[in-house]
Amino acid sequence: MSNTSMGVSLIGVPTDVGAGVRGARMGPEALRVAGLALALQQSGLDVRDCGNIRGPANPWQEPVDGYRHLPEVAQWNELVHKVVHFELQSGRLPIMLGGDHCLGIGSISAVARHCRETGKKLRVLWLDAHADFNTAALTPSGNIHGMPVACLCGHGPRELVEIGGHVPAISPREIVQIGIRSVDAGEKRFVHEMGIEVFDMRFIDEMGIRHTMEMALDGLDANTHLHVSLDVDFLDPVIAPGVGTTVRGGPNYREAQLCMEMIADTGLLASLDIVELNPALDVRNQTAELAVDLVESLFGKSTLMRQVTDAT
């Protein structure tokens, strides 16, 4: 699919119901203010802003049976699932503007459902400082934005695990995690048990971002639906302060750009989440502007000037 024919749909999901800090509900508007739609249009894309999904308010309550705001989280994710699936069925590329990362349950379950319906293989790149593989038994906070990968892999409350009607929504083999650097001990064991491929920051430090991305993208073909779930805390907080759960030591600007450019080079990007942007913690919207910059690279804007010649 060439850029000129590609339809892209922006879907705002203004909630921080799964997070431990309020403010991510303002993320969609910050991305719009930072010029996301115009940047994509200038890349030759047909951009439709679907506006914001309307869902329940954040009650800001304590956990119940290990989960905070489970009814509200379930409702938001059902709504996300429905809208993302509709856009995929319509032949468009959905970009979910979060909101916190619990929304990945609805988004990715919709992508997985679409792949089952169309016979496509799925590859999810989970770009994040956190593995998000907690369960109620593993996390004291009960914040569901720390649980979406576990839920997608079938481990979590029925209300979340069954979204999309297929349990588990995805296989652990279909997801690759990149940039991880903050994992609870029990969560680490669980990730290893499930066999998820993780390229943590130690691996990136030792092997470099190019080799990391070559491995993460290995095995893709024309029948692969590539989904990127970008948690803005994937980035080093020096360049991206506007997140609720900063963890030092993430990818720098050039590493992040190369990551996006190598994804773009595959030509297979078919859906995207941008989550955990918290304008209340940002500095003059710089994190939103950086996110827009990176999304431009995801859709093919490249700094490459040097002519690449065939070595043969």
From TrEMBL:
The keyword Hydrolase applies. GO terms for molecular function: arginase activity. It catalyses: L-arginine + H2O = urea + L-ornithine. Signal peptide: none annotated. Pathway: Nitrogen metabolism; urea cycle; L-ornithine and urea from L-arginine: step 1/1. Its cofactor is Mn(2+). PROSITE patterns: ARGINASE_1, ARGINASE_2. Keywords: Arginine metabolism, Hydrolase, Manganese, Metal-binding. Binds 2 manganese ions per subunit. Its EC number is 3.5.3.1. It holds the Pfam family Arginase. The keyword Metal-binding applies. Belongs to the arginase family. NCBIfam families: rocF_arginase. This is Arginase.
